[in-house]
Design goal:
- The complex is a heterodimer.
- Chain A folds into two domains: 3-226, Metalloenzyme, LuxS/M16 peptidase-like (Cytochrome Bc1 Complex, Chain A, domain 1, 2-Layer Sandwich), CATH 3.30.830; 250-423, Metalloenzyme, LuxS/M16 peptidase-like (Cytochrome Bc1 Complex, Chain A, domain 1, 2-Layer Sandwich), CATH 3.30.830.
- Helix content of chain A is 43%, strand content 24%.
- Chain A is built from 16 helices and 13 strands.
- Chain A has helices at residues 40-50, 60-69, 107-119, 130-145, 151-163, 177-180, 185-198, 211-219, 222-226, 276-288, 294-302, 331-346, 352-367, 373-386, 392-401, 404-411, and strands spanning 3-9, 12-18, 24-34, 74-82, 85-95, 123-124, 127-128, 200-207, 250-255, 260-269, 306-314, 319-327, 414-423.
- In chain A, the strands form three sheets. Chain A has a six-stranded mixed beta sheet with strand order 1-2-8-3-5-4, sandwiched between helices. Chain A has a five-stranded mixed beta sheet with strand order 9-13-10-12-11. In chain A, strands 6-7 form a two-stranded antiparallel ribbon.
- The termini of chain A are far apart.
- By secondary structure, chain B is α+β, with helices and mostly antiparallel strands.
- Chain B folds into two domains: 2-233, Metalloenzyme, LuxS/M16 peptidase-like (Cytochrome Bc1 Complex, Chain A, domain 1), CATH 3.30.830.10; 246-423, Cytochrome Bc1 Complex, Chain A, domain 1.
- Helices cover 41% and strands 21% of the residues of chain B.
- In chain B, the strands form three sheets. In chain B, strands 1-2-3-9-4-8-7 form a seven-stranded mixed beta sheet, with helices on both faces. In chain B, strands 11-15-12-14-13 form a five-stranded mixed beta sheet, sandwiched between helices.
- In chain B, helix 1 packs across helix 7, helix 9 packs across helix 12 and helix 9 (272-287) packs across helix 15 (400-410).
- Classes of the chains: A alpha+beta, B alpha+beta.
- The interface between A and B is large, with 66 and 64 residues.
Chain lengths: 424, 424
């Protein structure tokens, strides 16, 4: 196998993916901490402030110049929700040394800059640079306010918010405008220290890598040496942990200036058996996975009710989401058609062929995990966080074994939780 | 087959021009599981007036035909849809229409030749009836509505309206509800028979292939067709100025969006690639992450992120685009204009120039990370009559002096316009 994991210190792991498929090496640092109302805004702000400058490269401009000089190495950071965790993600991608126009050493320098950004920030008088914090507070406010710009995404986020009301997963990953104002550079730095000392830290390296050299570049890095081992605080989510309380179907309608309505339906999966995630994946593919799926065929093709119609499976929360872009006047008809499809699934009204096609779709997407560097990293990180390690080969085997009966049984444990409709 | 090679990035392309005029490009990639094929016709939304080589008839078509035709190609006489058939094989299939070409593609790990059977079958067998054309109008109407709600798309269409008076690039690729209502099977067949002739088509294949064998496989699936003369496309005369300097619209967005454009009036056929590279260097020097201007605008909260930078061109149009979000789009424009004048007056900084040049090299190499990127890139470049490797090879030849000349030639005040979307 091309993947190996090593513990650097307690709660800090180095994951190495050896591959010759790319022109690039990709390095990533992920910090995981439980989602909490009081901390989401701090986390979102933190990532933004960290990329502004380090103790060595004091401004964004200096960082950019270093990266450009390394043949346009690119740095990226962001926050994600994975299950009930908030993840701060930092990536650095650089050309593999083999493809430079003239020989140069980039790997050590690259990791050095990435670690510098995450673990060695620019600190002034026991606080972050106030100018950076103020600037990023303004930016974050605008990012949060911009959530209405992409209507499809907005409708999806709103459905999640309604479905997980007062629960960690219902929190918005960029936080809340009302929490931004009161954050001070001192307070943010205090929070940073607490986070860095307690969170789960995972370092991923993918590309054409020499094992010893990589380990040395990580272990002997001053910033890594400074870190203490820890009992990492984070939440393990998988299909077994996500017990659902029975709920009433909740309908939420909102109005905005749109010509196309956005319908999002959130569904709970009540089945919490080990490995039911493989069945749920197949269920999702049959229902709304692609152009052959029931939703696409019936909502879009047969009735011309929608341009987009599909579903997605949120493994960490054992939930499903149906998403359609529809003409507003077709709301009732689209909803009825969707509900018919859900009933069909319960009654096993789909063919063996549908099932096989859906599995092929999933198997193809699993095969392609190793064809994109960040996807491969995300695959292994997802397993790490959910405490369910399955190799790609095993994963494919489990998918292949799912039967029509399995899917039908699972269908009967699925219930609509929230119907969200964005209209004019 | 003709072989071209890029030693720097260790890739080769095998190229064959068949007797019927079709061009086939094969880029073998060892060790990748994914295979990608894309088959394109040099027929896009700007080709709305032409002379049919078979009959000499001059044809005007309603806006949106190329895109409509793309949708309709999937439909088969037996009621099946080729997109479904491809998906059922576990392939990731799709199609798209741009200003200057239409492409049919799929990506897969298994079942490549089964997929190739289907792809080459449906693209060579049109089936249009009054009934299936009518039905499609509903689906495409939804797609047009979706674009109407998309601020990013409106921003783009509006800048095209500023830069061009009569050039069909300013048309919506999908047309309008009104224009597509005029589409009939007869129009579709006329366009199909003209533009889907092998002599107007290019196929690019990328993956772990043996080129000679693959070439034979493709040839075996081609239906013999009589040779066709050149298609005479009729475009409006080249325009010597822009249409208007400014267009503003209001939509439901949180932050104003801007897109600045510089029309490359000359658009000469010489040094296309060097010019493109020089423009990318200039844009990065002007407002890239390490530029003084970006630093100033970011620190003052006027820009939230580096603007998107682009140079789009074909033989019929060419323009530079700079786009992003800002509370003060007019100020951004003013600052960019000032920085351009300054660069024109003072000349390019040597250190910045060579650093950005290294960055641009990295950007080009990263394109070779995925078979899909490679396929799309070779197809799009081939439609413009260029070879993608030239970006890597010609990179060295772009000098500071040449880049300075490009700056003076293209970034002219009188050829500049701005499109703005403001919040309601």
């Amino acid at each position: 196998m091309n993947y190996q994991k090593r513990e650097i210190k307690k709660g800090i792991n180095l994951h190495q993916i050896n591959t010759e498929n790319y022109k690039t090496n990709l390095y990533a640092v992920f910090l995981a901490t439980p989602l909490a109302r009081g901390e989401v805004t701090l986390n979102a702000l933190l990532g933004a402030v960290l990329r502004r400058g380090t103790a060595n490269l004091k401004s964004q401009e200096q960082i950019s110049k270093e990266l450009e000089d390394m043949y346009g190495a690119s740095f990226n950071c962001g926050v994600e929700k994975t299950g009930d965790n908030h993840i701060l993600k930092f990536y650095l991608e650089t050309l593999s040394e083999e493809f430079l126009p003239q020989p140069e050493k980039l790997n050590q320098k690259c990791l050095g800059i990435l670690f510098d950004i995450v673990f060695n920030p620019l600190i002034i008088n026991n606080a972050f640079n106030p100018e950076y914090v103020e600037g990023e507070k303004k930016n974050l406010k605008q990012i949060i306010e911009a959530k209405i710009d992409n209507k499809a995404k907005y409708a999806y986020d709103r459905c999640i918010e309604e479905m997980f009301k007062n629960k960690p997963y219902g929190l918005y990953k960029f936080g809340y405008v009302e929490d931004i104002e009161k954050i001070t550079p001192e307070q943010l730095y205090d929070y940073y220290k607490k986070l860095i000392n307690n969170c789960k830290i995972d370092i991923f390296c993918s590309g054409s890598l020499n094992n010893e050299e990589l380990l040395a570049n990580v272990e002997e890095n001053e910033n890594i040496k400074k870190l203490q081992g820890r009992e990492p605080k984070y939440v393990v989510n998988n299909e077994v942990t996500e017990k659902k309380e029975p709920t009433q179907e909740n309908t939420v309608e909102e109005s905005m200036q749109v010509t196309q309505g956005k319908l999002v339906i959130g569904l709970d999966i009540q089945n919490t058996e080990e490995n039911s995630r493989f069945i749920a994946s197949v269920y999702n593919a049959v229902l709304g996975g692609g152009a052959n799926s029931k939703l696409f065929q019936n909502v879009r093709e047969k009735q011309s009710l929608a341009y987009t119609a599909g579903s997605s499976y949120l493994r960490t929360k054992n939930a499903l989401f149906i998403r359609c872009g529809i003409e507003i006047k077709n709301y009732q008809k689209a909803l009825e058609t969707i509900k018919e499809q859900l009933e069909d699934m319960k009654n096993g009204n789909f063919s063996e062929e549908d099932l096989e096609n859906s599995k092929k779709l999933i198997l193809a997407s699993i095969d392609s995990v190793t064809e994109e560097q960040d996807t491969e990293i995300t695959y292994y990180y997802g397993q790490e966080l959910s405490d369910r390690f399955v190799t790609i080969e095993k994963y494919k085997k489990y998918i292949s074994e799912v039967s029509k009966e399995n899917v039908k049984d699972l269908a009967n444990t699925i219930k609509i939780n929230t119907i969200y409709f964005l209209k004019d | 087959m003709k072989v071209i090679e890029s030693l720097k990035i260790k890739e080769k392309a095998y190229i064959e021009k068949l007797e019927n005029g079709m061009k086939i490009i094969i880029i073998p990639k060892k060790n990748t599981k994914k295979k990608y094929v894309i088959w394109g016709t040099h027929f896009g939304s700007i080709d709305n007036r032409f002379i049919m080589p078979q009959t000499g008839e001059e044809v005007f078509i309603p806006d949106g035909v190329a895109h409509f035709l793309e949708h309709k190609m999937f439909e088969q006489p037996d009621g099946t849809n080729s997109l479904d058939t491809l998906m059922a094989l576990g392939l990731d299939a799709n199609a798209y229409t741009t200003n200057d070409h239409t492409a049919y593609l799929f990506e897969c790990t298994d079942n490549f030749y089964e997929g190739l059977d289907e792809l080459m079958d449906y693209v060579q067998h049109p089936y249009f009836t009054d009934e299936n054309v009518e039905k499609e109008k509903g689906i495409i109407g939804q797609e047009i509505n979706m674009y109407d709600d998309d601020p990013g798309w409106q921003l783009y269409i509006n800048i095209m309206d500023c830069l061009y008076k009569d050039n069909p690039i300013k048309l919506d690729i999908a047309g309008s509800i009104e224009s597509i209502s005029k589409i009939t099977p007869d129009v579709l067949y006329k366009c199909y028979n003209t533009f889907y002739h092998p002599s107007n088509m290019v196929m690019v294949l990328c993956g772990d292939f043996e080129p000679e064998n693959l070439l034979q496989e493709v040839k075996n699936r081609l239906i013999p067709k009589e040779n066709q003369g050149e298609i005479k496309r009729i475009y409006p005369q080249k325009e010597n100025s822009i249409n208007k300097a400014e267009k503003t619209a209001q939509m439901e967005v949180s932050l104003p969006m801007f897109m600045m454009g510089f029309k490359d009036i000359e658009n000469s056929a010489e040094n296309r690639i060097q010019k493109h590279i020089a423009i990318e260097i200039l844009l990065n020097m002007l407002i890239g992450k390490s530029s003084d201007l970006y630093k100033e605008l970011y620190e003052n909260g006027i820009l939230l992120a580096q603007p998107e930078l682009d140079y789009e061109w074909s033989h019929e149009y060419a323009h530079v685009l700079i786009s992003g979000f800002s509370q003060k789009p007019e100020l951004v424009k003013q600052k960019i204009d000032e920085a351009i004048s300054q660069m024109q007056k003072e000349g390019l900084n040597e250190e910045n120039f060579s650093r950005i040049k290294r960055k641009i090299y990295g950007d080009y190499v990263i394109e070779y990370n995925s078979v899909a990127n490679i396929g799309r890139m070779f197809l799009a470049d081939s439609m413009k009559g260029i070879n993608s490797f030239d970006y890597i090879e010609d990179f060295e030849t772009v000098t500071k002096e040449y880049t300075q000349n490009v700056l003076n030639d293209i970034f002219k005040k009188e050829n500049e316009a701005i499109s703005i979307i403001k919040p309601n």
